[in-house]
Design a protein that fits this description.
The structure is a single chain. The protein is an all-alpha fold. The protein has one domain. Helices cover 70% and strands 0% of the residues. The chain has 21 helices and no strands. α11 runs parallel beside α13. The longest helix is centred in the first third of the chain and has 25 residues. The chain is globular, with a radius of gyration of 21 Å.
C-alpha cells in the first residue's frame, strides 16, 4: 500500500532515476569481481577444494553425475534406491558425496537427460554444464529484455543477466534451474511467432514439473490453445520416454521419494530448508503455523499469484510484462523452492529492468529491484545466518510492480 500511495506505477524522470544503464553495468562488473574473489578465497582456505569433509563447487551436479554413472551401467533402478545411490556417491566422491536422507527426487525423464554426463570426467562435465546453462539462460532472457532489438542492447542484457547473483548461486551448486528458466524464457519469446516451439519448451519442463504449474493457467487465459496442446503432448511424451527407458518402477519410486522429501524437508524444514526457501509456506512454518495451516496460507497466495498472472496475460500483449509475471508467479505458486530456483527471478528482473530503462523507474521500484537482485545470495547463506525469511515479501512486491506497469501500459507489443 505504501507504493500505491506514493504513486508506484507512474514513471518518473530526472535525478530519481539513479539506477541507470551505466550503473547497472558497473554493478554487474563489480559482482563478477566479487564472485572471483569469493571462489579464490574458497579455493585457498580449502586447499583447492580438497579439504576432507569440506564443500566444493558443483555439489548438486555431483548427484546428477553419479546418476549418470549408474545409467550408463544400465542400472536406473539403483538411482531410486536411496541406500544404493548413497553407496555409489560414496564410491565416486568419498567425503565429498552429498549424502542426505533424501533419495533421487527427479522424474525418470530427467534421469534420461543426465545420462550422458558421466561420459566426461566430473570436473569437465560440471564446467561444461555450467557454461552451457549460463549461455542458454543469458541468450534466451536477453532476447526478451532486448525490446529494441539492438545488438549493443542485447550484449548489455546478456552480460547483466550472466553476472546476476541468481546465476552465480545456481552455477556454484551445479543445479538445473538455469536450464529450466531458459526453457521458460524461450517459450515466452516464441509463444506468438512459433507456438509449436514454445509448446515444446513448456512441455520439457516436465523434468521439473513444480516450476511449470503457472503455464497451463496463463495459456488458457490468453487462449493460446495451440501452445497448450503441444505443451501437454510434449510433457506426456517426455514422461513416457523416461518411463520406457528407466522402467515403470522408476516412476513409482519417484513418487515414493518425492513423498519422503516432502515430509523431511518441506513439512519439517530439514537441512535448514525453510531459511533457504523463499516461499509463503516456509514463512508460515517459521512463524509456528501447523503444516495444514501453512499449506492453506500458501495456497491462498499461490491462487492470487496465478490469478494476477492470468489477468496480465489477458489484458497485455507486452512480452516483457508477461514473462516477468510468469516467472514471479511460478516462484510464488510452488511450496517447494530452493534458493537456486531463483534463477527464474532473473527473467523478471531483466524484463522489469529493461522496461524501466526504456520508460523510467517508478517510485520505490529501484529499491525493490536491487533487493530482489541480491535475494539469491541472501537465501543461499540464510541456512547459516538464519535471518528472517524475506523472499515471499520481495516476490510479492515484484508482483505488484508488474501489475502496476500492466495497468498503466497500453497493451502494445514491444
Amino acid at each position: 500500500m505504501y507504493f500505491s500511495s506514493r504513486g508506484m506505477g507512474h514513471p518518473i524522470g530526472g535525478p530519481a532515476n539513479w539506477l541507470t544503464r551505466h550503473r547497472l553495468a558497473n554493478m554487474s562488473a563489480v559482482a563478477v569481481l566479487a564472485y572471483g574473489a569469493f571462489l579464490a578465497t574458497w579455493a585457498w582456505v580449502s586447499h583447492g577444494f580438497s579439504s576432507i569433509g569440506g564443500a566444493r563447487p558443483g555439489i548438486d551436479f555431483s548427484i546428477f553425475w553419479a546418476a549418470s554413472h549408474l545409467m550408463l551401467q544400465g542400472m536406473p533402478a539403483r538411482v531410486y534406491d536411496h541406500f544404493a545411490f548413497v553407496k555409489t556417491q560414496m564410491d565416486l566422491f568419498g567425503n565429498f558425496a552429498d549424502i542426505h536422507g533424501i533419495g533421487w527426487v527427479y522424474p525418470p525423464a530427467f534421469l534420461v537427460a543426465v545420462a550422458p554426463f558421466a561420459l566426461l570426467p566430473f570436473s569437465i562435465a560440471y564446467l561444461l554444464f555450467v557454461a552451457t546453462g549460463i549461455g542458454f539462460y543469458a541468450f534466451t532472457i536477453a532476447r526478451i529484455a532486448n525490446g529494441e532489438c539492438r545488438v549493443d542492447n542485447a550484449r548489455f542484457w546478456a552480460f547483466m543477466i550472466a553476472a546476476s547473483p541468481c546465476v552465480f548461486i545456481a552455477a556454484i551448486v551445479g543445479q538445473n534451474s538455469l536450464f529450466t528458466a531458459a526453457l521458460a524464457a524461450a517459450a515466452l519469446w516464441w509463444i506468438v511467432e512459433r507456438p509449436v516451439a514454445a509448446g515444446i519448451c513448456i512441455g520439457l519442463l516436465a523434468i521439473k514439473p513444480q516450476m511449470a504449474v503457472v503455464f497451463p493457467f496463463v495459456l488458457i487465459a490468453s487462449r493460446a490453445w495451440k501452445v497448450f496442446v503441444v505443451a501437454a503432448a510434449t510433457a506426456v511424451a517426455t514422461t513416457v520416454i523416461g518411463v520406457v527407458i528407466c522402467g515403470v518402477q522408476s516412476l513409482e519410486k519417484f513418487f515414493v521419494n518425492a513423498d519422503a522429501l516432502r515430509g523431511a524437508l518441506l513439512d519439517h524444514g530439514g537441512q535448514g530448508f525453510w531459511f533457504a526457501s523463499p516461499t509463503v509456506f516456509s514463512v508460515s512454518r517459521l512463524a509456528g503455523f501447523s503444516v495444514v495451516t501453512a499449506y492453506a496460507v500458501h495456497a491462498c497466495v499461490a491462487a492470487v499469484a496465478i490469478g494476477a498472472a492470468c489477468q496480465v496475460w489477458r489484458r497485455s500483449n507486452d512480452r516483457r510484462l508477461r514473462a516477468a509475471m510468469v516467472a514471479i508467479a511460478a516462484l510464488l505458486a510452488s511450496p517447494y523452492v530452493w534458493h537456486y530456483e531463483l534463477a527464474w527471478l532473473g527473467i523478471a528482473l531483466a524484463c522489469l529492468g529493461a522496461l524501466a530503462l526504456d520508460g523510467g523507474w517508478s517510485r520505490g521500484e529501484q529499491t525493490v529491484w536491487l533487493i530482489a537482485w541480491a535475494l539469491p545470495i541472501y537465501e543461499h547463506f540464510n541456512r547459516l545466518t538464519m535471518l528472517p525469511q524475506i523472499g515471499p515479501l520481495v516476490l510479492l512486491m515484484l508482483l505488484w510492480m508488474v501489475l502496476q506497469r500492466a495497468a498503466n501500459s497500453k497493451g502494445s507489443e514491444r
